[in-house]
Amino acid sequence: MKKYSLFISAAFLFFCSNLCSDVFLTTYEEIKSAYDLSGYTWTSEKVPRIFVKKIPEEIKKIEGAERRHFFIQLLLPLVLLENEKITAEHDMIVPIAAKKEWNAEDVKIISGIAEKYNIIDEGQDISAITEDEKEKIRYFLDHKIRPVPPAIAIGQAALESGWGTSRFVFEGNNLFGHVSPDPSKGIKPKNWSGNQRHIRIFDSIQDSISAYMLNLNRNRAYNKFRWYRRTHPNNLSKMAEGFDKYAIIKEAYVGRLQSVMFKFGVHKINNAKLDSGESANVIEKVSQPYIN
Questions:
Q1: Which residues fall within 8 angstroms of residue 100, CB to CB, at 6 or more apart?
Q2: Nearest C-alpha neighbor of 288 from the set 52, 82, 74, 78
Q3: Quick one: which H or E segment has residue 275?
Q4: How far apart are alpha carbons 129 and 113 in whole angstroms?
Q5: Single pTM value for the model
Q6: Rounded-to-integer distance, Cα 163 and Cα 263, Å
Q7: Contact between residue 219 and residue 242 where contact means Cβ atoms under 8 Å apart
Q8: Number of neighbouring beta carbons within 10 Å of residue 242
Q9: Within 13 Å of residue 247, how many CA atoms lie on the same side as its CB?
Q10: Are the beta carbons of 224 and 244 closer than 8 angstroms?
C-alpha cells in the first residue's frame, strides 16, 4: 500500500509540475510521500505548493517534535497561500483608492472591501465624502489588508488546537476556536450548556485560516497587533503583545504564544515563501482537486 501511495503521489506531482502549480492531497501516506519526494521539511524556506483540506487523524499517533514539525508542514503552505490572497487584495485596492477622483465603479469596489474590513459601516454611502474621509479610508485599506506573519498564525493554531489534535480540528476543521454565529449550530464543547455559542464548523482547514486572518485584520480587539505589525514588522515577540485580548487569560496568553514560537522553533519559518507558481487570485475558496 505504501509503495502504491508513493507511486500515486509521484505521478500526481509529475502531472502537476507540467499542468498546474498547486497539489492537493488528503491521506497521511500521500502527504508524507509528497513531502519526501519534494524534499520539503518544516524548516524549508522554499515551500512547495502542496495543500491539504483536512488534518489527517494520524497526527494523533505521532508525538513530540515529530508531531510539531508535521503540523507546521501541513499548515505552512496554507498560511502562505492565504497571505498571497491578502497581498493580491491589497495590491488591487490600494491603487484604486489612491485615485483623486472615484468613479461609480471605484466607489462600488472600495465600499465592498472597506465594509469587509470594518473600515466603513455596512451600507454607508461614500460617493460624496470629503477628501479627509477618503484619506482615512485609504490609510486603513493599506493598514488592515496585510499578511499575517506565518509564525504568529501557526503559533496560535498550535496553542488553540493542541498541535492539531483537538476534536474540533477533526470534527469541524476549526484550528482557532472560532464560534458559530448561530448558537444552535456547530460543535458543542463538553463543558458548555444551554444556549452558549458552539464551535464553528468549516468546510476545510483553509477556510478556518481565512476566517482567522480576516478576524485579525478587521476586529478592533487586535488594533494593537496591527499597529505592531506595521511598526515592528520583524519583531515577532512585539507583535505577540497585540494578542492580550485574544483569550480570557489575557497577558498570560501573550507569554504562551511567545513561548510556542521561540521554544519550539516556530519563529524559524517566518521567512518561508511558496515555491514559484502563479499567485492565487483573490477568491472566496481555493479549488480543491483532491486525490481520493
A1: none
A2: 52
A3: none
A4: 17
A5: 0.87
A6: 14
A7: no
A8: 22
A9: 15
A10: yes
On the 0-12 / 13-18 / 19+ scale of CB atoms within 10 A, 195 is exposed
Q: Are 286 and 51 in contact (CB under 8 A)?
A: yes
| Lookup: cell for 113 | 472591501
**In angstroms, what CA-CA distances link 273 with 8, 75, 162?**
26, 13, 25
Confidence of residue 139 (pLDDT cuts 50, 70, 90): very high
Taking the domain 2-85+147-274, which CATH number applies?
Answer: 1.10.530.10
Nearest Cα neighbor of 286 from 56, 12, 59, 84 is 84
Residue-level length of the chain: 292
For 273, which DSSP code?
Answer: E
Write the CA distances from 122 to 112, 115, 117, 289, integer angstroms. Answer: 9, 6, 10, 35
pLDDT tens-place string over residues 151-190: 999 999 999 999 999 999 999 999 999 998 787 788 888 8
212 sits in which H/E element: helix 205-218
Q: Which residues are CB-neighbours of 7 under 8 A, at least 6 positions away?
A: none
φ, ψ dihedrals at 200, nearest 5°: -70, 145
